[in-house]
Amino acid sequence: LIENALGFLATADRHPLTGRPKDVDTFGQLRERLGDDPSRPSYHVTPPANWLNDPNGLIHWNGRYHLFYQYNPAGPFHNTIHWGHAVSDDLVHWEDRPVALTPSPDGPDRDGCWSGCAVDDGGVPTVLYTGGRDKRQLPCIATAADDDLTAWDKDPDNPIIEELPTEPEVLRTEDWEGEFRDHCVWREDGTWYQLIGAGIEGGGGAALLYESSDLRNWEYQGPILTGDRDTAGTVWECPELLDFGDRQLLHISNYEDVVYFLGTYEDGEFDADRRDKLDHGDFYAPQSMWTDDGRILTWGWLPEARDVSGQWNAGWSGAMSLPRELSLADDGGLCQRPAPELTELRGDNTSYDVVRLDAGDTEQLPVESRSFELRATVRLEDAEAVELSVLESPDGEERTPIRYTYESEVAIDRSASSTDPQATGDTQWMRVRPYDAPLSLRVFVDGSVVEVFANERHCLTSRVYPTRDDATGISLSADGGRATIASLDVWDLDSVW
Ligand code: FRU
User: What CATH number should be reported for the domain holding residue 474?
Assistant: First the structure.
């Protein structure tokens, strides 16, 4: 009888167990149903619906780019985390894939498959991730069961590390037996190395180093760097070490910011000579992938900047940043530029050789869009500031000014971005290194994302939520003097799904 009933439900295009129509269970359908939401980014990676946080397991495999991410299929809130999965052939267009990792009811990852990374273990794609269960967070491992990386076999011996380091002592809290999670794994001269993020009892955050010959048996080596808790936070999450040849970069996420340290890493110790933030806005827990042609591409999670009820109403939460190409400048500093592949998305173009502004002038651009790239070179001449206002309604009620000031600051002012009280309204800003040369700006606006690259070095990403359909204008103005905007281009950008 049951078989018959299940058979009937299945042929009736209903899910045999839940009885829900099968078609609404597909990611394509979910995505389509959220398609009318003007806040939904169209060329940034988003979850099909529900919740997304950190990028995970980035790997180029069998000719395709795989981006996994922290995903809660049950709703737009952080709970019972799975690994969502998207694939791309060109780093620009993406397709949803079925959920890749699911918490096992009787496993060490029962409460969540948290962040981790992917490596090629002699031809076997392998992920290391943190399993959460009760008050414990412990490293787990899984290997791909197919070349499309859709099915994963968890190691029966998970968790692969059970004892927390005692030298120094890992921070315990009311909630956790040890703040100890997230993984960065690489191989050097036949030995595997792993960093795990942690907090130190009485100290600050730390990136802890382990060594292994087989990815399963790990020997603790000690911290490669510990932070000063007053300035770099008490817990470091998602540490990642990137090798630029002569110099190395370590970035960590400390609940607030993504802090990077530049310097040299040798014999288990990181010696930093520079430090800054990877992005000065809504950007967290980034992870990187090496391309076949030797470039480093980094994605970060762009958390929402509206309250929980706003996320519930929307039915989705979280987006990925654009892929950013990281490299070193001649002066040893960090360069960050949007991956060149993104120019693929450029559609209709509006272009000016030069726009000259006198004090108090406002120039309205003949573009209406909530999904575009703007590139310009800004010279302040004797102006105190230039304002590039995006997502602007004709009467100016809603607008998001990006201000560049003579004090070498770039700010995104969200005080008038939205009339929705659920949206955050503070100003986010960054100092850009003073140059005699003009400021080069690349601005990517996409639904509720404003992602700014300045001088190919500094990034500032803000989430904003205009409510008005006509908040699609762009204008330029100068304050307190003259300014010149040269090589100004605006391109409409296509959707990537
Ligand atoms: C960072 C983080 C990680 C953790 C994951 C859980 O945003 O808190 O430390 O592994 O998210 O989703």
Answer: 2.60.120.560
